[in-house]
Amino acid sequence: MPEARFDIAIAGGGPVGLALAAMLAARGVPASRIALIDARPVELAAQDPRAIALSYGSRQLLTAVNAWPANATPITQIHVSRRGSFGRTLIDSEDYRLSALGYVCRYGDVVQALAHAVPVSVAQYRPARVDDRREYDDRVALQLSTGESLTASLVVQAEGGVFSDQPARALQRDYSQVALIATVQSTHAPPGRAFERFTDEGPLALLPQDEGYSMVWCMRPERATSLLALNDAGFLNALQQAFGQRVGQFTGVGKRDDYPLGLNAGPVATVRTIAIGNAAQTLHPVAGQGLNLGLRDAAVLASLLARACSPDTLTRFESQRRGDRGTTIRITDLMARVFAGTSDGSLLQSVLGLSLGAIDVAPTAKRWLADRMMFGSR
To answer: What is the CATH number for 152?
Structure first.
């Protein structure tokens, strides 16, 4: 079988990998010189019902390549509070003259919109995995699970997980927490308002979606096991106790799932390979910044590669992304460790809760927080 040759090979066809391919083509990189490799058919990924939060800045990036999903629920307010504390912060889009702070979308809808934005002349290898990678002075050779082989001047790793089969990272942490995810309904749902509730066991987020909420509830594994064993009425009662009455009474819950949480940060790079998105940094879901950070990675890398497809470009990319990545990782990690690494109701947890009240009456601090949630560190 002849060996195909490309300028750029993207290993990972999720939202970040697809976004990079679309952004490269939009900036003038010949689509026929781009390869995209992923283990799942795009039709299967497009059926994924999970909810994801996209920032206002991410909407700008996706709109620029005609990849904004048709179904997106605007987040106009973010209510941040601490259970058992009077401190709270309310971030409102009107304060920044924006139509929304962010949006809640289904993962599959985002994938489908991006897949349509990728030119048909981009070579897509699906379903396929990279079984072997060998780097030479002038190229990288990839052997795929399908038996096909290809070479590229540069390889972008755009898919990864918390404890993926990658070399050791500069910062890797197991929070000994899991996230429970489900859709829930309540008797009172303020339009467009998302909630981030800090409980003694971990952050609890409610994201507005359809007529209810997409819930992400972080906690210790033993607590998750007990909640998963409850019937719907018992689970809703436990959720009510943890969250309070801000959305009235919880009346319904969909299928519940759990997954482990951790931090995997410190991008792995070689002369001709670079990592972006989850392959570079997998974050705790507190504040919902993982995919948004990955899309900013893709945007910067596409801009640089459109000027020059060379190893020097990868070095410049690492330098330009260091600040945004570092700030987002530190903030996310700090908030996660306060709950995962301290005892319930500790002084450190209480200080975090009290600080929310201080932020609410300090416009400069609130704007700083809002700006990083919407656009990252600029």
So the answer is: 3.50.50.60
